[in-house]
Amino acid sequence: MQYVITGKVIRGDGYGKKLGFPTVNLTSKTKEFPKTGVYAGMASLDGIEYRAGIVVGPRKKIEAHLIGYNGDAYKKKVTFKINKFLREYKIFSTEEELIIQIKKDLKLC
């Protein structure tokens, strides 16, 4: 099942940007979310579609790294199309481990 989630971009904690993978964080009134995990999908922003690595975290926090996007999306409308489950959500022991995994995830996107 493909999930489509639309909402407004909100400020995150900046952690993805710190790691070198800035994300757009989404607030949405969508009732149906996929299970917590990492997904490959698409994101539509300003009429342009980007391949995206999408994370559905605990408490229905959703964010995505838009491959090739480097603008400021704050307060803009974005639509995520979640296509393929990649892996379970996981807390990593070190930032280095997380960065290695993010690179692997994005190759699959």
TrEMBL record:
SUPFAM superfamilies: Riboflavin kinase-like. GO terms for biological process: FMN biosynthetic process; riboflavin biosynthetic process. It is an enzyme of class 2 (transferase). Transmembrane segments: none annotated. Gene3D superfamilies: Riboflavin kinase-like. Its EC number is 2.7.1.26. GO terms for molecular function: ATP binding; nucleotidyltransferase activity; riboflavin kinase activity. The keyword Nucleotide-binding applies. Keywords: ATP-binding, Flavoprotein, FMN, Nucleotide-binding, Nucleotidyltransferase, Transferase. InterPro entries: Riboflavin_kinase, Riboflavin_kinase_bac/euk, Riboflavin_kinase_dom_sf. Residues 1-109 form the Riboflavin kinase domain. It comes from the Bacteria. It catalyses: riboflavin + ATP = FMN + ADP + H(+). SMART domains: Flavokinase. It holds the Pfam family Flavokinase. PANTHER family: RIBOFLAVIN KINASE (PTHR22749:SF6), RIBOFLAVIN KINASE/FMN ADENYLYLTRANSFERASE (PTHR22749). This is riboflavin kinase. It comes from Candidatus Nomurabacteria bacterium GW2011_GWA1_37_20.
